[in-house]
Automatic annotation (TrEMBL):
It comes from Mycena venus. It catalyses: [(1->4)-N-acetyl-beta-D-glucosaminyl](n) + n H2O = chitosan + n acetate. This is chitin deacetylase. Its EC number is 3.5.1.41. Residues 328-364 are annotated as: Disordered.
Amino acid sequence: MNASIPAIAPKGTNGAPSGVIDTYPSTDPDCWWSASQCTTPKASGVKPDIAAMPEPRTLGYGFDDGPNCSHNAFYDYLNSKQQKATMFYIGSSVMIWPLQAQRAVADGHEICVHTWSHRSMTAFTNEQAFGELWYTMQAIKLVTGYTPTCWRPPLGDVDDRIRYIAQQLGLDTVLWKYDVFDWEANDPSVTPPVTPQDVQANYDKVIAAATSGTFNTTGAIMLAHELNNYTMQTAIDNYPKLAAAFDHLVPVGVGYNKTQPYVETNYSQPTFQACEFLALNLFSSIPVTFGPLHRPPLIVLLRRFPSYRRPKLTIPIFADVAARGGSVAGPPPSSSGAGAKPSGTSGSNTKSSGSGSGAQTTGSGAGVTLRVSGLTLVLAFIGALALVL
Ligand SMILES: [Zn+2]
């Protein structure tokens, strides 16, 4: 592979930048995002970055630097809003917090790679850059059962050499155009200091731009983080405002109708239209333009959008991962993942569960047992009541 990789020298050593940016040509021959925010490669055969959303008034909703050991409150909040997002996970953190990574899949979020050690990718050799991506893909596969097909470079540091290596691994490169700089807030090493007020002003700028029509033709991708409690709380605080300013908040892959976000084919997420249609017509408490009589029953929607059916869970529990001795090349899990949440794994399963028998047609055995038990209890209760009366 080395021979076909664009011949661009590493811009540093072991992921640490060398300062070459100060002498880098203004013509930007490498399409180096750090120098020019270039997202359209200059090397032939390299796919352009994803830095905006094709759908108008749409925000590609995502968070970097997870999984986070204390992200349950944040993920609970997203669940309460039936909101899915793209989560850019650091490989080494996935190994430290595997249960938290599993939750993202169980909740229906889209997982992308955010490298193994979160350093400057252009400052790695070809082999090191390959390792940063490949080992993260394998860690996510090991823990969740799924292999990502997208990645985001830490600090946005990517050039055509790194893009090419990612592309050969089957990874789409996802950047952004709006940064709320939540990751820099309260960090004493940052000069000049970034305050929470600065971060809120950055959120407000994106919200104001959406409200004033900036994204009426092309949607936006914004950089935010699940890095720490402050960044997650700030995301929660701003969610209602973003949801009001944009027509749609969707995972990046959904905006691109990427219905198969992973290498494995037993998982799918909805198209943009399906996501939008279902969100508007079935699950939102916001009045919609056509009345309830025009809303098709859930079973019809499930037939129309089979990806919304509850898939059989294939997420391994942590003990299962440990039992495999941490083997990266281990076989895909075949059990139904007793440790995973029973709410399913695809785009709107959280929404569809309990809304009709159609949603349960491919449910797990445990779910069926629970429902039978519930029915038995109800019948027993009615019987007991009849005896008493
Ligand atoms: Zn990051």
